[in-house]
Amino acid sequence: MKKDAKIYIAGHKGLVGSAIKRKLENLGFSNLIASDVDDFDLQRQVEVEQFFEKERPEYVFLAAAKVGGILANKTYPAQFIYSNLSIEVNVIHAAYKYGVKKLLFLGSSCIYPKFAPQPMQEDSLLTSPLEPTNEAYAIAKIAGLKMCRYYNEQYGTNFISVMPTNLYGPNDNYNLETSHVLPALIRKFHEAKMDNKPAVELWGTGSPKREFLYVDDLAGAVIFLMEKFDYKDIGEVINIGCGKDVTIKELAETIKESVGFTGRLEWDTSKPDGTPQKLLDISRLKKLGWEPDVSLKKGIEKTYRDFLTGPIVEKK
């Protein structure tokens, strides 16, 4: 991509989109379409196509999505499948219709089967049943990456799909009803510290293992792929992660230490654990020449600082 290439970041106000925007700006890309983009509804085809017809972006990062943790996915499955399918269908088709040179679609590691062999390789997709608690979201994301593949095959487009692991970092969502586990724990421990609570109650057993990638590392990876590799090089999808996982209990202890909470942990084992383990095989990406920079401990410290300095509305 040339530094003056017209680049559209769909979802630029979210965790991933804002990180991609920051990284592109730091690298000197000067023609980003981001301001006021959220004034139109990505779920409405007419509005999306009007935007593409007017702006004619050359490159698209499709980071817009409705996301959330176990509670949100279980509570709002209809919203998750509708919103994500609508966004993907509208943006991908408009990118084809208005001649976008290259599009990058962000999937999610949670769309792999619940009991996929670990670490999960790209060819594990659709080999066995999904995790029931996030099936609606997973089906929508699978449809998006398949749509990219079929448009490439039928129309000769250059749409690539990536499969990120669990992400966290600046501009995360700290709403306890809709957030993912890491930002939710940051908020829980912070509030317990401020209120001098003796304990924090956490869901499940603490035994599931998860992989976490700092979002700025993810941004670097997708820009690396966008600049250097085409669909023919990557295939249907490629994993992006750090190649290491921790138990939720280990994660909680690390966040507890970073926040400075001195109380105890109490585990509500009546609540679901979700998938037992989710670790991505990132060997293909490493062979292409990319590896992450930020350790989990350092990333949590950076994210906690963001939590402390962010607007209050982000924490409600």
Corresponding CATH architecture: 3-Layer(aba) Sandwich
**CATH class division:** Alpha Beta
- Uncertain regions spanning at least 5 consecutive residues: 312-316
* Order of adjacent strands in the largest pleated sheet: 2-1-3-4-5-10
Which of globular, elongated, flat, extended, rod-shaped describes the shape?
Answer: globular
Distance between the termini: 38 Å
CATH superfamily: NAD(P)-binding Rossmann-like Domain
| Binned strand content | 5-15%
Order of helices and strands: EHEHEHHEHEEHEEEHHEEHEEHH
Average pLDDT rating: 92
Number of helices: 11
Portion of residues in helices? 40-55%
* Number of strand segments: 13
Domain count, please report it. 1
Largest sheet, strands/sense/barrel: 6 strands, parallel
Structural overview:
This protein has a single domain, classed as NAD(P)-binding Rossmann-like Domain (Rossmann fold). It is built from eleven helices and 13 strands. It has helices spanning 15-26, 45-55, 70-75, 77-97, 135-155, 181-194, 215-228, 231-234, 248-259, 283-288, 296-309; strands at residues 7-10, 32-33, 59-62, 102-106, 159-164, 166-168, 199-203, 209-210, 212-214, 238-240, 246-247, 264-268, 277-278. Strand 1 (7-10), helix 1 (15-26) and strand 2 (32-33) form a beta-alpha-beta unit. Helix 1 (15-26) packs across helix 7. The radius of gyration is 19 Å and the shape is globular. The N and C termini lie far apart (38 Å).
